[in-house]
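Review form for a predicted model. The reviewer records the input and the model, then writes brief findings.
Reviewer: anonymous (R2)
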Amino acid sequence: MNLPNKITMLRIIMIPFFVFFMLTDLVEYSNYIAVLIFIVASLTDTLDGYIARKYNLVSNFGKFMDPLADKLLVSSALICFVSIPGNPMPVWGVIIIISREFIISGFRLVASDAGVVLAASWWGKIKTITQMVMSILLIVDLDGTVINITELVFIYAAIILTVVSLMDYLIKNWKIMQDGNM
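Model under review:
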């Protein structure tokens, strides 16, 4: 396993620790520990991609697992948000975002069985960054009019980008399904 793939796996390993600190009251300032873990895990996404491209270590495993690790991290945060009273993340938004992730992951799995590897698009990357920024804002949970409006802007931007990236992905890869490669 190459270094970028090890970094991707580290991101996955960080998720249970993030969830623990996100949902516990046993540790003072647990939400700040959770946001620190979330930020570090999010930064590993940039790091593993950078190393993979710079040192020509791009692999099929990485093309599949890197976006999956992102989905697991963001989905874990979203599920935590709906369990926190007063959190502004709407349940229907969580359902849309997680549904998109299942659809794309299933599509990638079927494509990989046919020998086709589908990498993330730019829309998907922008969506992921927006979801991660939204998550950081919601984890820190600061109060104030500007912060509350900023949170809402990122929530709805994340939901819209989720739908746009899904449509982009399906449109770009529709031919693969029609050609019978899947």
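Findings: The chain has six helices and no strands.
Further findings: The CA atoms of residues 61 and 117 lie 10 Å apart.
Recommendation: see findings above.
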